[in-house]
Amino acid sequence: MHREPEASLVGEEYEVEVGPVAHGGHCIARTEEGQVLFVRHALPGERVVVRVTEGETGARFLRADAVRVLDASKDRVEAPCPFSGPGRCGGCDWQHAAPGAQRRLKAEVITEQLHRLAGLTPEQAGWDGTVEPAPGDKVGRGEVPAWRTRVQYAVDEQGRPGLRRHRSHEVEPVDHCLIAAPGVTELGIEKREWPQIETVEAIAATGSSDRQVVLTPRPGGRLPIVELDRPVSVLRAAESRGRDRVRLVHRVHGRPFVRERAAGRTWRVGEGGFWQVHPKAADLLVEAVMQGLMPRKGHTALDLYCGVGLFAGALAERVGETGAVLGIESSKRAVEDARHNLQDFDRVRIEHGKVEQVLPRTGITEADLIVLDPPRAGAGKETATRLAGMGPRRIAYVACDPAALARDLTYFAAAGYVPRRMRAFDLFPVTHHVECVMILEPRREDG
């Protein structure tokens, strides 16, 4: 049976009442006909005119931007960044919300995800319902903290650096990113042109003077001579065509790594590898995980998705010579860095590979403590069930996505592990992202 294509509604405008915040940096509204709208640049309770950016008649929902505010929320502020707004830079979701309101919106999203996906109230999750700002991030109304120590700039056809527009490959050229940390801004990436380059990633290490620029040339493009405003290491990135599409990074000039300072130690992070982008994040997360796990001398511990060994190092210091720590990480370069970073601990072992594949091969069937910091998709049922089966005293789950956390909580609950305490941190101000640390314990016989 031939089906007529649905008519595009892109560009259509509707006057709507804005409903609650939703996961992903937008709010929910409905047209008069009842069609759901995911609206950016709006706040709950406002009356706005929205313009559809994606969708057609008959679709389950439409995406839209608020282009005129008819009745503003008391939490609305003028976006301080000149590149923020409908159709422009897609990097910051909440520039138009006061700082306190941003954290309340994130708390509402966490609450909704816990309830909808895990059937938990904040109280049942051991959470006081607040999202904590990082030290130093309490700014005034309409101000933005400069926190991001790693910024990946896209480059347009004219060689101008910028940032991607929302859900688009189009580049919004910028001459200054407000959330970029001072160490990134001082490199002067935004002041020059980058011909034949696709992306420029700028990295400013915390606690050291190390600066790094990772350049990805366009197909067939050549690297420019890089002369920036500060001493900097330069790396060239390419993308392999293998099944996992692993990014390959090669040193061009300077060190192939940066030195990050956190948790009382210096950490080598090689060739554009993962590290928390907020300068206070590593210390805050280690503190929350260690307070929740309460490691003791002689404990055995697992650090899963361990990166360059941040949590493994903190655990190793606390379990002592009579304890043991196993870390598992899928990035080969991160494993090399973790082994280098933790070489002074005899009873720390770092294994390379995917957690779900490596953990069964280790033969380890028991552990006192487990910390896992999985990718945005979460750990999944198989891994959660296996970890619970090892009988740990406590599990610390570090989550960058409350939806993935809530889904995984149902798998842990089915295997007998329930929340004891949770903390939420605003480590990505003016964006919709939030970091949570959940501590799980075995369900007691009394419920």
Q: Any overview of this molecule?
A:
The protein contains 8 helices and 23 strands. The protein is of the alpha/beta class. It folds into 3 domains: 13-73, Beta Barrel (OB fold (Dihydrolipoamide Acetyltransferase, E2P)); 103-137 and 278-442, 3-Layer(aba) Sandwich (Rossmann fold), CATH 3.40.50; 150-261, OB fold (Dihydrolipoamide Acetyltransferase, E2P). α1 runs parallel beside α8 (402-414) and α7 (381-389) packs across α8 (402-414). A hairpin with a 6-residue loop joins β11 and β12. Strands 7-22-23-21-20-17-18-19 form an 8-stranded mixed sheet, with helices on both faces. It has helices spanning 99-118, 182-185, 281-293, 310-319, 332-341, 355-362, 381-389, 402-414; strands at residues 13-17, 21-22, 26-30, 36-40, 47-54, 61-71, 131-133, 150-155, 161-164, 171-173, 197-204, 211-217, 233-239, 247-253, 257-262, 265-270, 300-304, 324-329, 348-352, 369-372, 394-399, 417-426, 435-442.
Can you tag this structure with a few keywords?
eight-stranded mixed sheet, Rossmann fold, OB fold (Dihydrolipoamide Acetyltransferase, E2P), 8 helices, globular, alpha/beta, seven-stranded mixed sheet, 447 residues
